[in-house]
Amino acid sequence: MDRHPQQIKRERQDKHRRAKNIADMSKLRSSIKNVLASTKQDEADKLYKQAVSIIDKAAGKGLIKKNTAARRKSRITRHLNSLA
Question: CB within 8 A of 59, min separation 6: which ones?
Fold first, then answer.
């Protein structure tokens, strides 16, 4: 079967996008886990701001859906409020 140049390029792009998506999702999950693992209020505040920023960027890029982003932000906000 023929392998068209467009198909070859598409596969190359897909590999690159998949690697980036996996890295971005890993960064997102790690940031959420760090907030949930924190026990000090001041440390959690700093981590919370970073995590919310990462979640919003992921939702904006279409990596996660809008409601998923809202749910994850709600979860880390509840944890932050429980430390107060």
Answer: 65, 66, 68, 69
The token duo for 62 is 């279409």
Q: What is the CATH number of domain 5-83?
A: 1.20.58.110
Q: What is the pTM of this model?
A: 0.89
| Structural domain spans, the chain | 5-83
Of residues 20, 30, 33, the one with CA closest to residue 63: 20
From CA 30, how far away is CA 24, in angstroms rounded?
A: 10
Please give the chain's pLDDT, 84 residues, in tens: 678 999 999 999 999 999 999 999 999 999 999 999 999 999 999 999 999 999 999 999 999 999 999 999 999 999 999 998
Q: Residue holding tokens 């990596």?
A: 63
